[in-house]
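Protein entry
_____________
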Amino acid sequence: IMMYLFNVSGNLMSLGAIDFGLIVDGAVIIVESVIVAISAKIHLNKHPLTKAEFDETIFSSSTSIIKSAIFGILIIIVVYLPIFALGGIEGKMFKPMAFTVGFALVGALLLSITYVPMMCSLILKRDMSEKETIADKIMTKLKKIYVPSLEFALKNKKLTVSAALIILIISLFTFTRLGGEFIPKLDEGDLAYQIVRLPGISLTESINIGTQVEKILMEKFPEVKTVVTKTGAPELATDPMGPEFSDVIVILNPKDEWTSAETKEELIEKIQSELSIVPGIGISFTQPIELRFNELISGARGDIAVKIFGDDLSILSNEGNKVASIMSSVQGSEDVSVQQVEGLPQLQIKINREKISKYGINVDEVNNVIETALAGKTSGVVFEGDMKFDIVLKYDPKFTSDINSIRNILVASVDNIMIPLSELADIEVKEGPAEITRDNGKRRIVIQGNVRGRDIESFVKELKLKIDSQLDLPPGYVIEYGGQFKNLESARNRLMIAVPVSLFFIFALLFVTFNSVKQGLLVFSGIPFAVVGGIFALVVRDLPFSISAGIGFIALFGVAVLNGIVMIAYFNRLEEEGVTNIHDRIISGTTSRLRPILMTALVASLGFIPMALSTGSGAEVQRPLATVVIGGLISSTLLTLIVLPVLYGFFNKHTNPKYSFEKQ
């Protein structure tokens, strides 16, 4: 309903981001508290509860834990707010996710505090059996492992905290070695490649080469279903390309029909090998949407674009070739190409003013003859009904087909003597600029390439080091790195603002929850240790940092503090009930909260597992996000159960003079 009201479409990110495990976390906390309270009441009374006792127990147990559940869910909602501040492509991708998760959690919050307690009174029995269930047996075994571990941690508080800090430092160091990419590359199922020919090629010859390429693909690769080629620019100049460029879309058959290759990478290698026999072309492979995506955001169709800015086209071309050579030497580089800014044959006619003055001819007269011969000149108009047509005079092509014919074009003098053009001007064919492109008014050349087999960030770092050490640009010439890397940097800069804002919101709500800076910091300590698990999970799955993983860390921050809130709130409840000995409070509180903490972490993790393991369309974007959350939940749960009680005892040791970490 809310998606409809806010005009949020159902797509990969909006619907795929819904974690049903996360949605029921609040309900899990409340139901577990109710069940424990009812069991304790029955055990105390030695008889089934009356209806009034039953309802009173549900009400009191729900209200005792409901504050923790409400603030826990509110924190998860709040951490998504900075995502709405993201701009650019990452904003368009992840805002629907933030909307959907927020809507779902608001609904879950309302149901947790109204519907869930009511259903407990209808479904749960007033005479619960005290017979041990399978779940009880599992929890008993877990407690036998957990309690001695916690006792050891309490006795060795310095060792426990130091070990946690060392793991945190190692994870942060590991994060710097992860590498990075803007957004994980999606497998679109089809291929696209760009053919680049020599500048100045005719449209007819360009089409012939495109037809030859299509024939090779259709005849030699049964994996190819259809090939569509677009050469040059369309009628609307939204995609300016000369006739030397062609975009080729290759529609592939389903993979179970492939015979000559097992993977797309293998198919690309074989296609490259077959097309290498076509002379005078360069080919860059990508995917249909990715090709347009890269071009729109960076002006280049490759993953990496290195732009050199300067005034002299010859210097730009020379330095561009050097950069291309360096880029090709970097591991993972593919399809490296240099923008052809020179090499277009030009016919240059330089009028000799001294010679034309001898014959009494002026410059305009010579220019008129050249224009008429080569381009044609309007000499009149013909009307057919309402239609008007220009009459254009032009030499027969056989008189202008080569440079010698052009040299023999005759120009009339004042005495009506016909003089060859070669007597009046210097005529020669030279290489001139193929195209002049600018960014912000500055001339530039683009060297582009694709990256395969490694992440973009580490590739660019290595490329920068090599260019800085091997290339010495003339004064006034500068290098700029673009493509996916530039988007990664800009998005990361925006995350550098969004993440601190999320952390501030979390701490503010924690302070409101406990009305204590000290206890707020205790729960807040779960965040860095949740990050530990997220980082190591990326390492285990060999995933680089991406904006998708960054959003996963933001989502993790809210989930990581949920169990900490439940734990500290229960410690406070025990203190209010008169448990003054901190050691007893810690042991009693942790063992009582072990089941709900494990349940909420497990349920939330299970909700993200389909995203983490999915191999369907678009799974590449969701996989890093889910991996970070699952890994972070594992480490934050361990913190909540082991390190958080130690920190709680440390921060509260002065409140009880008889306190000792050792069991009294």
